[in-house]
Structure formats: C-alpha cells, structure tokens
Amino acid sequence: MSKKIIHTDIIVVGAGIAGIASAYYLKKKRAKSRFFILEALDSFGGTWYTHKYPGVRSDSDLFTFGYSFKSWNDAPIATASEILKYIGETIKENNIQNNIKYNHKVLKADWSNSEKKWTLMVEHSTKKQILYFSCNFLQMCQGYYRQNQGYIPNWKNIENFDGKFIHTEEWPNKLNYSNKKIIVIGSGATAATTIPVLAKKAKHVTMLQRTPTFYRTSTIGTEEIANTLRNITDDSEWIHKIVREQILINQEIFIKRCVEEPEKVRLELLEEIRNVLGEQFDIEKHFSPSYRPWQQRIALTPDAELFKSIANQDVSVVTDEIESFNKNGILLKSGKELSADIIIAATGFNMSILGDIEFSIDKKFINLSDTITYRGMMFTSIPNLIWTFGYFRQAWTLRAEMIANFMIKLINHMDFIDAKKITVKLRKKDQNMKILPWIREEEFNPGYLSRALEKMPKSGSNIEWVHNQNYWYEKDIIPNIDLNSEEFIYE
Fold this sequence. Notes:
CATH class of the largest domain: Alpha Beta
Number of strands: 27
Oligomer: single chain
Largest sheet: 9 strands, mixed
Distance between the termini: 32 Å
C-alpha cells in the first residue's frame, strides 16, 4: 500500500518570527503559490513561546526586530508576551492562520532528482502519526537552537546538590523562588535578563561566571528618538520607519567602532557600569572580557537594571571556575564555597542545524559540512532549499525578510525560464579559493557556535561564499543578485 503524500508548492519549516515573515511575503508577492508552514510546537512564536524563565524579553529593539511592514508602537525592548501578541496580530491581519500546521515536526527530507521535489516525513506530535508531505521548494525558518534543551557543561557531581537545579531553557511551570538563595551560572544575555527579576523576590542572587561579558545599559537613544517623533506626529508607520533607520545607522557605527577602536569602546562600556557601581567595585575583574567588543554578543541590561541590583546588594558577582557541586551548592576552584537553595544554569544552548532534520538526495544522506554556503542561505549541491539564518549583531528579522524576498525572486525567475530545479555551484574562478570554516573565530566565537562549527557548512574566501554579517552590505547586494550568474545551475 503506497503512503499518502500531501503536495504543495512551497513548505516553510517553522512558525517563528522568520517563518511568519516568509508567509507574509508569499501572500503578497506569490499569491498563486500554495504553501503552508510546518510547526513542531502547538503554537506560533518559537523562542518567544518556549522560553518561560522570569523576565524573558528581547535584547534587540523591536523597531528592527519587528517587521518592516508592521509598525511597533511601544517601548523598544519588549517582553515575550508582547512579541507573541505582535506576531499573532501579523498572522491575523494577513490571514496566515490557515497556512500553519501545528504539531508537525519534520523528521526527514529527501529530494528526488527524477521528480524534482522534496518529500518530508513528519511526525504529528499529538496524534502520534507519521505523515508525508511534498513540495517543489523548501524554506528552513526553524531558528538555530534546540528549544527546551539547554547546554550544560560537564560539571562534577551535580547529582549531589540537595536543592533544585534547572536550566533556563527548561524552566518548570511552577517554581517558588521567593526568599531563596539562588546561584545563576552564566553572565550572558539570559542571565542579564532574568537575574534582576529573580532578585526582586529571592533572598539573594549570586551571578557566577567563569569569564566576564560585555554589557550595554541602553538601546543607543532609541526611546528618546521614538518619543520625540511621537510628540510631532501620530503617524505610527512613519515613526517606525524613521526610528528603524536611525537605529540601523547607530548600530552600524557602533559595530564598526568595535573593530576599528575596540579599546576605546571597551572603556566606554566599562564606564557605563562604573557610573552605577562606583569606583570601589572591581569592574576590570568582573566585567572586562579578554575578547574585543562584539567578538561575542554584547548583552543588554536596559536602564542598567542588572547593575542597579548589584548596587542594591540584591545580587553579587563571583568570577571563578566550578570545581564540583556538593550538598549545599558549589565548590569553586579557588576553594571558596557558594551555598544555595536553587541553582540555575544560564549557560547557553545547543545549536539545531537545519532543525536536526535528516536530509538526503535520492535517499543518500547529506552531510552539511561537506557543502559550501552561498551567502549563508543556500548550499552547494542541495537543490531548491533556502536557509533563513539571521544576523548575530543585528536583528534576526532584518535578514529573514531579505531572504524571504530573495526566495520569491528566485522562484519567479525559475517560473520565467521554466526551470524545476536550482542548485548553486562553485564557478571557475572559485575552484582555487580557500575553503574556510562557516564563520571565522576572530569575527564571532560564542560557545554554542564553537561547539557546532564542525557540523556547519564551509565558507570560501570569495565573497559570494561567505555568510555575511553586515546588513548595510547585504541590503544592496542580495536584492540585486544576478540570477543568471554562473553559480546558479537550473534544470
């Protein structure tokens, strides 16, 4: 008995902020195309739906993290519930809800060269059924890390701790932390987000870090710009556009400075902290990393809320390494012991590369690390597939919208030349270029990326084969790619 396969023109994997952006543009620019979104969860929103730890919020401003086509009218930094509301409004306003299939987790995807289509094996998580779908074109918008699974280093004797041990990615539904002594391990974006909120109810919070992190205490004047414009006009679309452009300019100037004058930027960032904690606090020890600013993500703590919690003595900072866990808490390599009722690991996540889906061509397994990325959105030898992967230093959505529009342009071009298959291939002038890691360590090297780099596609020394992290470069290049260039192979 042959299996039933449901066919459509385009399948988008993931109903997070990127998948909904793609759905919007498909509705607007490819109205003739049939498509749906396969979402593993039971609702939309991705990160903003799964993250439950106290205080969860954006650390990108919503003027750029939000969509270009839907204005953001509130404070620049938004809570998870506010972001979910915004995405939900986008779905409703554009009649996208009927295109989403929830509880559909993609397990395998196989491309058939003879049939020129993808066939997907999908698990329906509530019905416990295996379903099959096929499509002419596949877009991956599944995000880049495993939801509900945090990264935990190989610490000794965690099981010996008598209190509660949890990871922020796996936050329990009900956790009473009122009047409790808490250790938060980690000092990145998640720790900066949750610690000030925890400190309001906890007896005391200790932020334990192996090495320091850079922080910003404001969104570079974003709120001031927005409020000034709101005093002039109530045209929310105009305000959104102007503020968005100004933020992008400010961000680009700052990122450029991080490369060209890193020591000056470092001193400025530390001075922001010193203004709150005072001269007596050991800023250099606890908040001056060994890497240059933006070589790893700069965490945002709006209105210096983390440092105000420290100044109020609700939070203390310990920079040391963990020797082992014990009954009462943590023994440090310095010999000091930290006791706690609850220990929270805010230690990052594990990357989910292409959704951890098993990809194949004519039933032959594809090893992504054997491919070379084309501008961080396609891969050599893999047909009819677009990968949506955003920016590390700027809002994810900026690139998501750009790639959605590129995909539509590419499919339109394929229609025009009557092509059913598109792959990218190295050109003659690329044959002797250097093959490099997906991203250079000196450019960006967070732990989650370093742990997964050997599984990622390669990049090349020629610019077309690089996953670029510069919005100002890509905003002019990607929309104007010549689809008749030598790297595009149509059949």
